[in-house]
Design goal:
Layout (H helix, E strand, L loop, with lengths): L4 E4 L8 E6 L12 H8 L10 E5 L7 E6 L9 H17 L6 E6 L1 H11 L3 H15 L17 E5 L3 H22 L7 H15 L2 E5 L1 H7 L2 H7 L7 E8 L4 E6 L1 E5 L8 H4 L7 H16 L4 E11 L11 E3 L5 E3 L7 H16 L3 E6 L3 H7 L4 E5 L2 H14 L3 E3 L17 E2 L7 H10 L7 E5 L25 H9 L1
Parallel strand pairs: 1-6, 2-4, 2-5, 5-6, 9-11, 9-14, 10-11, 13-17, 14-18, 15-16
Antiparallel strand pairs: 3-4, 7-8, 8-11, 12-13, 15-18
Helix pairs in contact: 2-4, 3-4, 4-5, 5-10, 8-11, 10-15, 11-14, 13-15
Length: about 500
């Protein structure tokens, strides 16, 4: 993949363009940047609107290319940190339109950084770090072109104000997000369960992480009927990939759904619905990316990622509607729909994580239900939890990270929709409240462990209606990595 770098600060004599991130409140100050800037602002051609950019040329200055990037005002979006991320991301995307720009300097007024820090209750270093991560995310590209032009990626982005501490944190978080996006964007044949295991092993060797992979024999011995059933229609064996960073302290488990391609099984999806199903592994991608970022930041936790990896394909060996599966925790599940497979593989992994690792809490990521997209669109993940304190902590962390999650109910009344006449539970509860009944199903497998479930079906990749943020150029977003890192650092 094409890679650029981020750095703290820059020399104006060494960059090809300078971008100034401007709010409506600081618009007048931007007139001092030069004649072209003053004229564009004076004529109303640049008003510092959210995501608005202007490419200008200031004669006699070095560099002569100047990008103005707006962050709007509080009425556009109340979260200044997020508006600054958007402004930085928009500036990077504007620069990427011109192949003559290899190196970009980004300047954010210190007063905006200080105000954002005060509003978020964080340090200015934290704000700077967030802006650096946004710059790196906007500079991301995934391409496998053998001919023709590859996407233009900036070789270097310098951010001012910048500090070494902010840069080191930003590099760690950005790497975790990139890993998640690379896994999510990879074509199904290049990132099937076998190749995902190989990639996880490369990461473990590179970062000195622990790795265990449970294959068919171990899964059978452990009674992981959910993972085995979903994966049995494919020629590629299912597996449970466990990646571990041990920074000491409490154990935290992150569980991610990795259906590397989801055709729906025997309840086959229509062809158009399959075109985005390489992204059904984005939950597992986020879990792996979280461990990478935690290791890079040397967080004082033991962070364990459990990633059940399968292909859900139709064949003569596929599991069938009305089959009854026995899960790792002993519950029997009637299969109401083979396309509700993610909850089956997650259930085994959650139950195993709770029993084996006894974590302080668990978080799972899953592109689980279309119902979550219907409810919240592509701008927020659906958040469920069996623990009020954890629910509020994840909600706050998601907002700070720029990955908003909206709390949804887990009331006992929804349990009735999952009733089965032949098994302990059904894997589906009908169309009404589909995201909630999926979460209620998962809740049966976590025991007393505090647990949060993030249904990222609407946010894991850039779909028709969003996410709208300019630091998502397209494809997988890596949604969830920044939230859990923020949760662990609170």
């Amino acid at each position: 993949m094409i890679r650029g770098s981020i750095r703290a600060g820059f020399d104006k004599g060494e960059v090809d363009a300078v971008a100034y991130v401007v709010s409506k409140e600081t618009l007048e100050k931007a007139k001092a940047l030069g004649r072209a800037s003053a004229e564009a602002i004076g004529l109303g051609d640049f008003r510092a609107g959210l995501e608005e950019t202007a490419m200008l040329y200031e004669p006699g200055t070095k560099p002569s290319r100047v990008i103005l990037s707006g962050v709007g005002g509080a009425s556009d979006w109340p979260d200044l940190v997020e508006r600054l991320r958007v402004g930085v991301g928009a500036a990077v995307r504007e620069a990427r339109k011109r192949k003559g720009i290899k190196k970009l300097g980004v300047i954010v007024l210190e007063e905006l950084v200080e105000k954002a820090a005060a509003e978020a209750g964080k340090s200015t270093d934290w704000v700077i770090e967030q802006l650096m991560v946004a710059a790196d995310m906007a500079n991301y590209a995934y391409a496998l072109k053998g001919k023709g032009d590859a996407p233009h990626v900036l070789a270097e982005i310098g951010v001012e104000p910048g500090t070494e501490a902010a840069l080191q944190n930003a590099l760690g978080i950005a790497e975790g997000v990139r890993v998640a996006r690379d896994i999510g964007n990879a074509p199904p044949a290049m990132m099937n369960p076998e190749r995902l295991e190989a990639y996880a092993r490369e990461i473990a060797e590179k970062l000195g992480l622990g790795i265990t992979v449970l294959h068919r024999g171990e899964l059978e011995n452990l009674g992981m009927g959910g993972i085995l059933a979903v994966g049995q229609g494919s020629e590629v064996e299912p597996r449970l990939i466990i990646l571990e960073y041990n920074g000491g302290g409490d154990t935290v488990a992150v569980v991610g759904k990795a259906v590397t391609f989801d055709a729906g099984g025997l309840d086959l999806k229509p062809p158009q619905a399959m075109l985005e199903m390489k992204y059904d592994k984005c939950g597992g991608a986020a879990a792996i990316g979280t461990v990478v970022a935690a290791a890079r930041l040397k967080l004082p936790y033991r962070v364990v990622a459990l990633v059940p990896a399968v292909e859900n394909l139709p064949s003569g060996k596929s599991y069938k509607p009305l089959d009854v599966i026995k899960m790792y925790n002993g519950l029997t599940v009637e299969v109401g729909n083979t396309d509700a497979e993610g909850r089956l593989i997650l259930a085994d992994a959650l139950a195993y994580a709770a029993e084996k690792y006894k974590p302080k809490f668990m978080v799972d990521f899953a592109t689980l239900t279309g119902a979550a997209v219907v409810a919240l669109g592509n701008h927020a993940a659906a958040l469920f939890s069996n623990n009020e304190e954890l629910l509020r902590s994840v909600e706050k962390a998601s907002r700070l990270a720029g990955e908003p999650a909206w709390p949804m109910p887990l009331w006992p009344v929804y349990e009735k929709q999952l009733e089965s006449k032949v098994a302990d539970t059904n894997n589906v509860g009908g169309r009404p409240a589909g995201a909630i009944t999926a979460a209620k199903f998962l809740e049966k497998f976590v025991g007393d462990t505090p647990w949060a479930h993030l249904d990222i079906a609407g946010t894991a990749w850039v779909q028709e209606k969003g996410p709208w943020k300019p630091y998502y150029p397209g494809g997988a977003t890596g949604w969830g990595v920044r939230t859990v890192i923020e949760l662990l650092r609170k």
